[in-house]
Write a structure and sequence with these properties.
The chain has about 120 residues and is mainly alpha-helical. The chain has helices at about 1-5, 15-25, 35-40, 40-45, 75-85, 90-120; strands at about 50-55, 65.
């Protein structure tokens, strides 16, 4: 989580955008909660111990918000991702099995084609 804090900011705009999109979409804040920011010494030196990214707050669009006064999403993103994956495990397994089935069908059709070429010989059309 310290890597996220170290790369969140103006000089790391790409990392900041990714973190903001994840936090905004999942309605979460930090890896393990707002403490990812407020307990990190690098973050506190730069932003203070009450500021968190605006993507952690429901009512702030850009910049930073005060974690003591704003409506902060205090659930960590790691927990949210784990919950989302476990809620959709059936869908994930189903799609994976579908891809495996398609691959098996492709291999079987390739074997049939090889047998026909070996039996009948290669003929140009």
């Amino acid at each position: 989580s310290s890597g996220i804090n170290a790369e969140y900011g103006e000089e790391y705009e790409d990392s900041k955008e990714v973190v903001d999109k994840i936090q905004d979409a999942l309605k979460c804040c930090g890896v393990h909660g707002i403490e990812t920011y407020t307990d990190n010494t690098t973050w506190v030196k730069k932003h203070g111990d009450e500021l968190v990214p605006a993507s952690c707050c429901d009512d702030v669009e850009t910049g930073y918000c005060n974690s003591t006064t704003a409506a902060v999403n205090d659930v960590g993103c790691l927990d949210k991702v784990a919950d989302t994956l476990s809620d959709n495990v059936g869908l994930i397994v189903g799609i994976s099995l579908g891809f495996i089935l398609i691959q098996i069908i492709g291999v079987c059709l390739g074997c049939v084609l090889c047998q026909r070429i070996a039996r009948d010989g290669y003929k140009e059309v």
